[in-house]
Amino acid sequence: MAVWLIVLAARCHLPRPTVSSDGGEPTNAVYVVQHGWHAGIAVRRADVPEGRWPALEAFPDAQYLEVGWGEARYYPGRSRGVWGVLRAGAWPTGSVVHVVPLDRPVPDRFPGQTVVRVSVSPAELDALTAFVAASLATDATGSAGSAVPTAPGNDADGRFYASPLTYHVFNNCNHWAAAALKAAGCDASPRWAFTVGQVIRRAKECGALVQEEAQA
């Protein structure tokens, strides 16, 4: 088991975040939303360059788009329970990107959930949207390719799309969210971000808490 974990760690890979060092002033913002042990990243649809995300055309009326990444069967709910958790993390498996259109401000769309706002410069926003684009698999149609839908989304009107990335315990959904934040200029130490708490904590240090999860 120890040898296998070392092999997994060596295979850990995410899209390489490209972070601008131009010192530009923040003029935009992205949002980090906590969903249980998972985090999503939300951006204004208008801030995503046309053609950057092959899934963009499916959501023409969205005000914001929230994206997340996870294991190909567990995330859409096809394989849950103890076996689903073990299968998703014990060895390399496929992955998917979850895209959810939001028709209102992010905190209003997710009442009672933790939401953090992180200001970004135009260059940092560009790097973030490029990072997400690299997480989406495309087919061969069209000049820029088309996203490959795999399942209906967990939220109304959302969709799951195929991803070329490999999922395992050293490359999980929180590593991906932390790497997305790093692309946006917030160094969330992706390699060590195993939990959603680590992602949210670092997002708070880079940005501002908008609302806190309601306590039962």
Walk me through this protein's architecture.
A hairpin with a 2-residue loop joins strand 1 (28-35) and strand 2. The relative contact order is 0.23. Helices cover 27% and strands 26% of the residues. Mean pLDDT is 83; it is low at 1-13 and 81-89. It has an eight-stranded antiparallel sheet with strand order 6-7-4-3-2-1-5-8. The longest helix has 13 residues, at 122-134. The chain is globular, with a radius of gyration of 16 Å. It is α+β, with helices and mostly antiparallel strands. It has helices at 2-11, 81-90, 106-109, 122-134, 173-183, 196-206, and strands spanning 28-35, 38-44, 64-71, 93-102, 115-120, 149-152, 159-167, 208-211. The chain starts with a helix and ends in a 5-residue tail after the last strand.
Topology:
Layout: H1 2-11, E1 28-35, E2 38-44, E3 64-71, H2 81-90, E4 93-102, H3 106-109, E5 115-120, H4 122-134, E6 149-152, E7 159-167, H5 173-183, H6 196-206, E8 208-211
Antiparallel strand pairs: 1-2, 1-5, 2-3, 3-4, 4-7, 5-8, 6-7
Helix pairs in contact: 4-5, 5-6
Strand neighbour order, sheet with most strands: 6-7-4-3-2-1-5-8
| Overall geometry | globular
Helix and strand composition category = alpha+beta
Please write the string of helix (H) and strand (E) elements.
HEEEHEHEHEEHHE
Give the uncertain stretches in residue-range form. 1-13, 81-89
The end-to-end span amounts to 39 Å
State the assembly state of the protein chains: single chain
In which range does the helix fraction lie?
25-40%
Beta-strand fraction estimate: 25-35%
Please give the largest β-sheet.
8 strands, antiparallel
Report mean pLDDT, rounded to a whole number: 83
H/I helix tally: 6
Gyration radius, to the nearest Å?
Answer: 16 Å
Number of beta-strand segments = 8
